């Protein structure tokens, strides 16, 4: 098990390094001159040359990459070409908002999907099970931003129960923070919960047909206790993999949802930086998002091995054969 974790950690490090090269190369080939963007169209050639030198854009690309990578290793993402502000502190502040949103959205999705997916599987021959499956199929077709707009229209504009947007840090006012987080988290979580419900239903249906569950019921366990005690852990193995994919989807969906609810997260900063052609900031944000996806996949791989005892046994057998 330890060897497997170390191997996956090495793969993660190599993947992050490769991702940094790809992100840097992609930004380097984009058309446009950051110095021209910073100074405007009326800048003189002399001033443009001086600004390119200050930005380090007159150096070879390999040198620029190594300088950027060295800064990243020390937590320095550089300074914005447009505003001149340090990028790292902005990313930290905005990332905190995005993580709150994604984490709350995932909680909503799991709270919805696990019970409803389980019920849809156990009731698959009943009208209630078919209804849950139909509603989940409908939820899959609804984009997160549309769900957000509908939620704002009902709960903010119509009922006036919750704010339609804005952000209050939790250390300032916990009540306002939670009220402002409800609708964005629901807009993300409801859609992803619908997707996850279908996977939970399929996983539980597969478990219900296994011999060990029928054996547990033949020994006197009632259906639901037998499923909870012996089936859900095995059903969780494929669901954990899907959860990792869902988490990355939530990260991408947060970009649009933050715009709908005027949240100062990483997605809003990305869109603003793209509009301002602040390529160095865009480069840092994209790298952070890619690394976040790689980390999620790493955690899913480790969790998969912890949940599924067969993988642990396979690892022990490989070690013993050596």
Automatic annotation (TrEMBL):
Its main location: membrane. GO terms for cellular component: plasma membrane. Residues 95-300 form the ABC transmembrane type-1 domain. InterPro entries: BPD_transp_1_N, MetI-like, MetI-like_sf. GO terms for molecular function: dipeptide transmembrane transporter activity. The keyword Phosphoprotein does not apply. The chain crosses the membrane at residues 12-30, 99-123, 135-157, 177-196, 235-262, 282-307. The keyword NADP does not apply. This is ABC transporter permease. The lineage of its organism: Bacteria, Bacillati, Actinomycetota, Actinomycetes, Pseudonocardiales.
């Amino acid at each position: 098990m330890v060897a497997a974790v170390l191997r996956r950690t090495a793969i993660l490090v190599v993947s992050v390094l490769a991702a940094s090269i790809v992100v840097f190369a992609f930004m380097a080939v984009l058309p446009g001159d950051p110095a021209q963007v910073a100074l405007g169209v009326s800048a003189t050639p002399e001033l443009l040359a001086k600004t390119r030198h200050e930005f380090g854009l007159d150096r070879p690309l390999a040198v620029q990459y190594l300088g950027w990578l060295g800064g990243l290793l020390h937590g320095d993402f550089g300074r914005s070409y447009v505003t001149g502000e340090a990028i790292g502190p902005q990313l930290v502040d905005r990332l905190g908002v995005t993580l709150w949103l994604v984490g709350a959205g995932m909680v909503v999705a799991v709270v919805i999907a696990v019970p409803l997916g389980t019920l849809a599987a156990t009731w698959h021959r009943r009208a209630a099970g078919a209804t849950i499956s139909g509603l989940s199929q409908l939820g899959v077709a609804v984009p997160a931003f549309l769900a957000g707009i509908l939620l704002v229209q009902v709960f903010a504009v119509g009922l006036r129960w919750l704010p339609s947007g804005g952000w209050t840090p939790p250390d300032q006012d916990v009540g306002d923070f939670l009220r402002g987080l409800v609708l964005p988290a629901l807009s993300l979580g409801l859609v992803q919960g619908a997707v996850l419900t279908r996977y939970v239903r399929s996983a539980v249906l597969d478990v219900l047909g296994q011999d060990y569950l029928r054996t547990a019921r033949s020994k006197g366990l009632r259906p639901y206790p037998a499923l909870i005690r012996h089936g859900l852990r095995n059903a969780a193995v494929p669901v954990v993999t899907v959860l990792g994919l869902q988490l990355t989807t939530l990260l991408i969906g947060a970009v649009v949802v933050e715009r709908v609810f005027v949240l100062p997260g990483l997605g809003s900063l990305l869109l603003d930086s793209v509009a301002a052609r602040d390529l160095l900031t865009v480069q840092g944000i994209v790298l952070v998002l890619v690394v976040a996806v790689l980390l999620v996949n790493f955690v899913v791989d480790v969790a998969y091995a912890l949940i599924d005892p067969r993988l642990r046994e396979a690892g022990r057998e490989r070690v013993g054969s050596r």
